Amino acid sequence: MNVRRRLIPTAALAATVALAATALTACSGTAGAAGAEDGKLDVMASFYPMQFLAEQIGKDHVKVYTLTKPGVEPHDLEITPKQTAQLGEADVVLYLKTLQPAVDKAVAQSGVKNIVDAATLTKLEVHGTSGHDEHGGEPGHGEEGHEHTDGDEHAKDDGHNHGESGEDPHVWLDPVKYAEIAKGVGAALEKSDPDHAADYQKNTDDLVAKLGALDTEFKDGLKNTASKTFITTHSAFGYLAERYGLDQEGISGVDPESEPSPARMKELQTLSKQDNVTTVFFETLASDKTAKTLAADTGLKTDVLDPLEGITDKSQGADYFEVMRANLKNLQKALGTK
């Protein structure tokens, strides 16, 4: 089990909230203060996929802040007193419950009226780490979908805090589900700022159309691949795999900073030969040690498959669409064509 995330103890969080409350009048440039000056809607996004939606839909009518700065692995986020103050002053908060426990707690105590939980805007599902083990080798068939729950206890799987039923939170990597979330975000901005509702609706429609086009690109680009199986150190691509008939094989139960277990290494060696796997994927915000270790022992190549939890100068693109298209090209290269 991945234990690399640092969770904020309840007592420490309470102290942070109390400190932030006293700092509200002293902190210049908080979200609320900025919004009061320029008339824009202040939106606090928990991490990049939420930030991108706010920027694309809100455009000139919003000022978007993010709790997770570029280069920070979202699960490692620690909330600062200044960020807590900004969160409390925001007009709208966009987050994805269960992905970042520190954010969940801060949002719950923020007192913000307009809070949008992306996990309630689409259907979350449970995805196993090994399609071959759980589904008899049939690609793209995850477990039955489960509605999102708001339980306080969260199951842990592959280094992520999931909902109490073990739901996979990585919905933004499926363009169709991301479009569903975009519609919900658009509606929330319309409600929060009715004077600009028409603009939010138009921007939402434009974004949903672009995501529809991206979905078509993935469908067309991945329908005739020689292999359907890909190996990744980060089991973030369950929704993408299910959407496009692929089989994600995560190096499960292994911290990204450590080497794969001998049993899993042997299993993946066998699987890579059986399913004509050529590549082990790693990501930009985490160590590539695991991928390189597995690749060296199996004679496979390595490449990047970006879970889009943040954009940095190392990302293969400047925004969501560019990185997703880079992911598509890397998958096509790794899976080959018939």
Write the layout of secondary structure elements.
Elements: H1 10-23, H2 31-38, E1 41-45, H3 48-58, E2 62-66, H4 81-89, E3 92-95, H5 101-108, E4 114-117, H6 131-135, E5 156-157, E6 160-161, H7 175-192, H8 197-222, E7 229-232, H9 238-243, E8 247-250, H10 262-274, E9 279-282, H11 289-298, E10 301-304, H12 320-335
Parallel strand pairs: 1-2, 1-3, 3-4, 7-8, 7-9, 9-10
Antiparallel strand pairs: 5-6
Strand order, biggest sheet? 2-1-3-4
Helicity, as a percent range = 40-55%
The helix-and-strand class reads alpha/beta
Largest sheet: 4 strands, parallel
Our measurement of the CA-to-CA distance between the termini, rounded to an integer number of angstroms, reads 37 Å
Instruction: Note the beta-strand portion.
Output: 5-15%
Number of strands: 10
Order of helices and strands: HHEHEHEHEHEEHHEHEHEHEH
- What ranges have pLDDT less than 50 throughout 5 or more consecutive residues? 1-36, 130-164, 253-257
Tally the helices: 12
Overall shape: it is globular
Tell me the radius of gyration.
20 Å
Mean pLDDT: 80
Structure characteristics:
globular; 43% helix; disordered N terminus; 10 strands; 338 residues; 11% strand; alpha/beta; four-stranded parallel beta sheet
Summarize the structure.
With 338 residues, the chain is α/β, with parallel strands linked by helices. The chain contains twelve helices and ten strands. Strands 2-1-3-4 form a four-stranded parallel β-sheet, sandwiched between helices. Strands 8-7-9-10 form a four-stranded parallel β-sheet, sandwiched between helices. A two-stranded antiparallel ribbon has the order 5-6.
